[in-house]
């Protein structure tokens, strides 16, 4: 059976560099199925709204994560940290605690930035949040894309830098392998 990977972009900006990276992933490793999981309609997390299935947008978001064999988060770094919209989405995906859709879900993290340091701080915070939800974050593998504006074709919305494409392809292949390893962790 074909694996399904959900891709979550931690930016709402239509021409986000991270969205371009996310949209490139399926062409780098076509052996699996992909679904882009949107954060755009999620309300701010509020425990008062988190009853039953929660708001419709939350229900759909959680179902998309549940359908995926694993998720890859592709996110920028804002002010040396995790974008608020992504943290909000991860909070929605982390409840209810015992049946949260992120619990025991294989997860990978990729990030792109125009800066020279990549998304190191943001990825640390994303990893910390995912680990708190008991997601299985791909260990030892990091995918930081710095100076991204020099590595994409913004008109065609794709990653064009061959070295970065090769690293990203290997990262996705490692993630697919990680999905197969996770059942042995239970």
UniProtKB/TrEMBL annotation:
MF-aspect GO terms: FMN binding; oxidoreductase activity
One Pfam family recorded for the sequence: FMN_red
GO cellular component, one term: cytosol
SUPFAM superfamilies named among the record's database cross-references: Flavoproteins
Domain NADPH-dependent FMN reductase-like residue range list: 4-147
Family: Belongs to the azoreductase type 2 family.
UniProt name for this protein: NADPH-dependent FMN reductase
Species this chain originates from: Paenibacillus beijingensis
